[in-house]
Please model this.
Amino acid sequence: MKRFTLALLMFGLSLMASFASAQVAPPRPPRQSNGLALTPPMGWNSWNKFGCDINESVIRAAADAMVSSGMKDAGYQYVIIDDCWHGARDSNGDIQADPKRFPSGIKALADYIHGKGLKFGIYSDAGRKTCAGRPGSRGFEYQDARQYAAWGVDYLKYDWCSTGSQDAKSSYETMSDALRASGRPIVFSICEWGKSQPWLWGETIGNLWRMSGDIYDGWESRDGHYNGMTNILDMQVGLESYAGPGHWNDPDMLEVGNGGMSFEEYKSHFSLWAVLAAPLIAGNDLAHMSKETRSILTNKEVIAVDQDALGIQASRLAKNGDDEVWVKPLKGGGRAIVLFNRSKQTHKIGVTWEALGYPATLELRVRDLWSHKDLPKAHGSFAADVPPHGVVMIRVEA
Ligand code: GLA
Model:
């Protein structure tokens, strides 16, 4: 009996102890965003045009052209070196730039870019190697983040090659924590290609996440290239609720000016990326771009739609065969509308106020964002002839 009482007492005490320790451990505070990229990031990245064929003059020329072409003035900020800048790690494990391609070093390049009033971005990978086989950050996350901060990095694109069985969310969380511990505000671009649905967990870890494989500079998939412009567009349907200030779906970098699409198609690409509130990261040769390319990339009225402070990603309001209507609500009650024609003939495409959530009787002002003209005020609906593979992009407001 005595023994039983003792056992009961011990059991009670251990219960109390575990209860007390459960009380002591403070609950983990919910993860917070880093407070950056409240509108979609804008900039330029070396990959789409130059691939691995980069060096410090290519990057400097891009920074120079970003200023002289009016891109900076239109809102582009980040000059981002993609894969292939890396050399080896030194005896301390610190990552070095490739001494042949970047003889002046990364710090000097960052200083040069900052000296032009621009920001500087770099690329690494969550695995042991980058997609082009350079050293990845696996196991060196904090050391690399410290190095980037010391160099003056403002943006990190973090890829997903050579990751084996790594868990995506925790791998990106580790680098996200490392960047914050570095003490420098660094926009974090998750480049995991949508494999582990980063829109479900990326909001407080990064600022943007790819949701597809690499974009192909073409209207649609062809010859084993899967992600033509319209294919990536289709993948955005249903993801719109995950985007917002500080955390964006990333349909990949722009191909405008790289030659695989027509002028009309590139206008569609740019207009659609803008209503999607996509990061606008140009991927062409800025130093040698045509007037047409420049006129697309620097269309400030279209850019203003992308950069609208509400940060709402457009939904596809209607799809009728090749005719589509994409709508992005704007701050102040207006809407940006892209009438999109996928066919090879001109189509008349329209939208009613009721479908847009306005009273049918409302008179709305209509602004054409490509012709830069106010159109006649409209009552109840708007329709326009849309060229083949083209768009008519308007902003309506009361
Ligand atoms: C992956 C990325 C691309 C680019 C390359 C570089 O494919 O998705 O955007 O960064 O790697 O090797």
Remarks:
- The mean pLDDT is 95.
- The radius of gyration is 25 Å.
- The first strand starts at residue 42 and ends at 45.
- Residues 277 and 360 are 27 Å apart (CA to CA).
